[in-house]
Amino acid sequence: MVFKLNNHLLSRIASSNGHGEDSPYFDGWKAYDSNPHHLTENPNGVIQMGLAENQLCYDLIQEWLKKNPKASICTSEGLNEFREIAIFQDYHGLQEFRNAVANFMTKVRGNNNITFDPDRIVMSGGATGAHETIAFCLADPGEAFLVPTPYYPGFDRDLRWRTGVKLIPVDCDSSNNFKVTREALENAYEMAQLDDVKVKGLLITNPSNPLGTILDRETLRSIVSFINERNIHLVCDEIYAATVFSQPDFISIAEIIQDDIECNRDLVHIVYSLSKDMGFPGFRVGIIYSYNDAVMSCARKMSSFGLVSTQTQYLIASMLSDNEFVEKFIRENKRRLAARYRVFTYGLGQVGIKCLKTSNAGLFCWMDLSGLLKEKTLKAEMELWQVIIHEVKLNVSPGCSFHCLEPGWFRVCFANMDDQTMQVALSRIRTFVNNKVDNKKPKKNLRWQGSLKLINSPRIYDDFINSPHSPMPQSPLVRART
Amino acid sequence: MEKQHQLLSKIATNERHGENSPYFDGWKAYDSNPFHPTDNPDGVIQMGLAENPLSFDLIIDWIKKHPTASICTPEGANMFKDIANFQDYHGLREFRRAIAKFMERVGGGRVTFDPDRIVMSGGATGANETITFCLADPGDAFLVPSPYYPAFDRDLGWRTGVRIIPVDCHSSNNFQITKAALEAAYDKAQQDGINVKGLIIANPSNPLGTTLDRETVKIILSFINEKNIHIVCDEIYAATIFSAPNFVSIAEVIEEMDCNRDLIHIVYSLSKDMGLPGFRVGIVYSYNDAVVHCARKMSSFGLVSSQTQYLLATILSDEEFVGNFLAESSKRLKKRHSIFTKGLEQVGISCLKSNAGLFVWMNLRHLLKEQTNDGEMALWRVIINDVKLNVSPGSSFHCIEPGWFRVCFANMDDETVDVALKRIHAFVGEQKEREMPKKTNCWKKIFGSASHLVYLKRVLDLHM
């Protein structure tokens, strides 16, 4: 049998690189994956500082689990629920789950005047699924969302890849600590009009990834007034809401619109998740909370493509309806994040490295290394980044992968490791900076200079089909450490 | 409303989510008046939901004995952190291995599945959508033999913009898929200027409950190779086979004949075979490397919860349990199927001869006032509102012959099956009674009153 050539076998979506994995954001992981740091077994390995995970409070969770065996459908205390839970596939989700999530969202925002309606809680496949779903609901292919830069690289995939929706950056810079100005919004909107691109909405992340800052009341009000004037949607990604570890307090969009009778609520939508606030990225708990009934209804129908496992819904329902635990967790989470942030930024400060001073949230620092650049260009940023990965052996994320216009900024995650590892990271940074200062002439070290282009082939990331990192200890596949 | 239309996307405002189909209509009747043996014995019995709870006791028993399978038990809690933190879209390796092994067992041990080709998705719902996104552009089409699962319209077409072209099958040959029907559908599409990208088959079939024989699978494979189009095999009912003939997976047949493996893809899930729809375990298995990679990237939109991956990895690696479960599940389904079909036969209702699935494809053509869709809908409304059974009308499965109904039998206990059969017996008796009004009406006792019978007659008359 003669087979025709494999042309046009796949869709355009499948053949494009809209999945965004060619971005350097994912590139540094390769260095980490092939040589991961371990305190005792591989002390010279690459330290993963490119993953915004919150690993600081698992002990609290484990303690709670011990005391609450009924939270699981697999414990002897909870097994009687197994059948009903395993068979439940209603896309409304368990009522208790929605109640608990609404309760948690309220507590996280601290302001008891805001309440979230459990009937507006809609599930999705993580925040990843939430963003895609909301884009499918609000925009047609070719239409656009405005997004302030720097922004989370995954947005390129989540909002655009399968939806055909465009993203238009609203550029922010350090001159005003990357604030989102009305002027910048209006400019971006007008440019889109000139290019004949229909803007359907604005996506803001508050607290911001990668900046770690929160939006002040004035900015939020300005944003609300902007979207109302233009009659476009506002999608607020609040997935870092519980990571605000110092003053000023977090202000949710829910609070702003509560007070604002001028705002058309049909335009306002919140994306939430437990991946960052609670450190449960594996559980894929994404939430869409829309004030627009039609959007809520549509998103709920779409949630069939990415519902939360009922086993997980059940666990979360139990955990997050325990107010005493929730309050303790929120408090302790903040405290530990604040402590970690202090130690890390202090350590950086000791070698003259500054982080964005307005940061008071998130699981990372927005580090200013522009002083170490040979020149203020993207190329120089990439060069410096290669050095950090291959010589300093830290996987950090370069600002350009967040579409930051100003070269020299790097996002460095600090909540996904223990204290000792953080000290190792800091000492490596100290050494590196001191060497650089001592040695003004850049070393010619071709070993790591490699390719400075953005690596284009998606195949690179796929080399890790056999992802070696199985957390299951009895697995023979746990990486042998030399 | 106009304002909403402008505010929202076309996808959000079209009807392609399909929830206005009668398939979902009957559920509303159920939801507002659900049967309960003691609390609401006159309520509507749900027979429109293809669920499989018959063998839960086996699973529950296993879990009791294996507390380390859960990250929440004292024995398993040390794994909590690593598992809760694990978001790699490759999925836990042990999970993929366990699923691959399970699929092999389900395939009778005659096939092997590569764990590195196992890609997760948000249930089979997510799997079908993902595979469509990978293979087809908006406006392209997939051929789907009818009758077919109603939600394919949503899963394959809603957000993807892909069309479904039914390949009509008839009871004259027990709804078998013929080469002629495939060719005819394909040619018509060509004439209409529609680009056919692939064929989707459900094997075992929902709603028919039948499996494809080897010969038919070969015919299908040769057809798709000839046309250079994809084949997506939805094998999610594979382990619900309860009698001969054995399941023949596409995985088996491709080893026996020349074909372009880049065209072969399987959709799987644990929702039916294990009765775990709540856990959202969807699997895309493709022989095409590019599709594996693409689907894997897309799986970020619907990964399986790592908590669930971990549990299933543990259960399904227990080969003894799996063997026992599959055998027992099959046995129980067979028994239930037999009781139900015999019960129907007693009142002259026949079903398509089937050997799989959680339902029967019931032939009520002889009860239609007219052999039309209207006739079918009229009968269906009576069954829902008067007999109080939520069954699914053939038209919701795009069946071109009126009078067929899918009736699920596995999602209830034995007593409820009994009640359902009694109601059906009563209904059929009543139908006969209508034709012979002078006969003593002992069925009055079942329905309660003469006025009720009058009402029933009126309802039927209205649809003549």
Taken together, the total number of domains of chain B comes to 2
Return Rg of chain A in Å: 23 Å
Tell me the β content of chain B: 5-15%
- Tell me, what's the shape of chain A? globular
Q: Can you list the strand order of the major beta sheet of chain B?
A: 2-8-7-6-5-3-4
Question: What's the CATH class of the largest domain in chain A, please?
Answer: Alpha Beta
Say how many strands of chain B there are.
Answer: 13
Query: What is the annotated CATH architecture of the largest domain in chain B?
Result: 3-Layer(aba) Sandwich
Distance between the termini of chain A: 50 Å
Number of helices of chain A: 17
Largest sheet of chain B: 7 strands, mixed
Question: Would you give an account of this structure?
Answer:
The complex is a heterodimer of chains A (482) and B (464). By secondary structure, chain A is an alpha/beta fold. Chain A folds into 2 domains: 17-57 and 332-451, Aspartate Aminotransferase, domain 1; 69-325, Type I PLP-dependent aspartate aminotransferase-like (Major domain) (Aspartate Aminotransferase, domain 2). Helices cover 39% and strands 12% of the residues of chain A. A 7-stranded mixed beta sheet of chain A has the order 2-8-7-6-5-3-4, with helices on both faces. In chain A, α6 crosses α7 (154-160). The N and C termini of chain A lie far apart (50 Å). Chain B has helices at 2-7, 10-13, 22-32, 56-65, 80-84, 93-106, 123-135, 152-157, 179-191, 214-227, 250-253, 289-298, 306-316, 319-345, 373-387, 414-435, 444-447, 450-462, and strands at 45-46, 118-122, 141-146, 163-168, 196-202, 230-234, 264-269, 281-286, 350-351, 359-363, 389-390, 392-393, 404-408. Helix content of chain B is 44%, strand content 13%. In chain B, α6 crosses α13 (306-316), α7 (123-135) crosses α12 (289-298) and α14 runs parallel beside α16. In chain B, α8 links the parallel β3 and β4. The radius of gyration of chain B is 23 Å and the shape is globular. Chain B has 464 residues and is an alpha/beta fold. Chain B has a 7-stranded mixed beta sheet with strand order 2-8-7-6-5-3-4, sandwiched between helices. Chain B has a 4-stranded antiparallel beta sheet with strand order 9-10-13-12. Chain B folds into 2 domains: 15-55 and 329-434, Aspartate Aminotransferase, domain 1; 56-322, Type I PLP-dependent aspartate aminotransferase-like (Major domain) (Aspartate Aminotransferase, domain 2), CATH 3.40.640. The model of chain B is unreliable at 448-464 (pLDDT under 50). Chains A and B meet through α1, α3, α4, α6 and α11 of A and α2, α4, α5, α7 and α12 of B.
